Amino acid sequence: MNTTSARISAPISVAVAVLAVWWAVTAAGLISPQFLPAPGQLAERFWLDVTQGPMLSHAWVTLSAALLGSLLAILVAVPLGYLIARLPWVDVAITPYVAASQAVPAIALAPLLVLWIGYGLAPTVVLCAIMSFFPMIVTTVLGVRQLPQDVIEAGRIDGANWYQLLWWVEGPLALPSVLAGIRAGVTLSITGAVVGEFTMGGRGLGMLLTLNRDANDIPGIFSTLLMLVVLAVALYILMRLFQNAVTWNDDEPKTRRRARVLADEPLPA
User: Fold this and answer.
1) What is the domain partition of the chain in residue ranges?
2) Which Pfam families match (predicted)?
3) Confidence bin at 65 (pLDDT 50/70/90)
């Protein structure tokens, strides 16, 4: 089995196994439908929510907050990660605070964001950015620090300045690592959006979960959770496809081949 087939068949097999166990447990009456709806019941409710209910409009609000927060995190985390990897004094000054930021739960920051920014989309976007920030900066630092120094030195010998090295060598070579962190961060941003909507208001899936909880609508809760899963998986797959787009068919990164050529030829002025 080739790699592509395995990447498709493995998650499908796991999903089929989980659904089979789920169906068997509910069909045997081991768990009451009041606590866990059957797969068929959930599929029917999800279809009704998507086609006739407000699910899609709420999902769009949550997705918008997650994407905006991810973009904000990228604009901060990637440049800062590069500086940490390249400048020792930035590493010493900033890294302890980056690590300490992970000790504060996102839900604990929400009341502060409300006080500083107010209710609505803006504080939710900031919370999404905070949730996405850490994996992006970590993978950026690792990607830059693991760059082949011989290729970078060859660029310097060819007369490249710092901008040319960054654009033609360091950036392309570090791109796979950076994209891996972005992929993880974008997925986490969905969680940040829901947490923000729980605590700071909004009209996304977090609000829909709250309404279903207050109404004791268990199928509605599971239907909303299923939509969150769909959004997270879709974002993950899209980022994965984008990352694959910068690789050659033989799985060797296109950017590494470009850097190898640049190591032998003068960089463009």
Assistant:
1) 1-31, 41-264
2) BPD_transp_1
3) very high
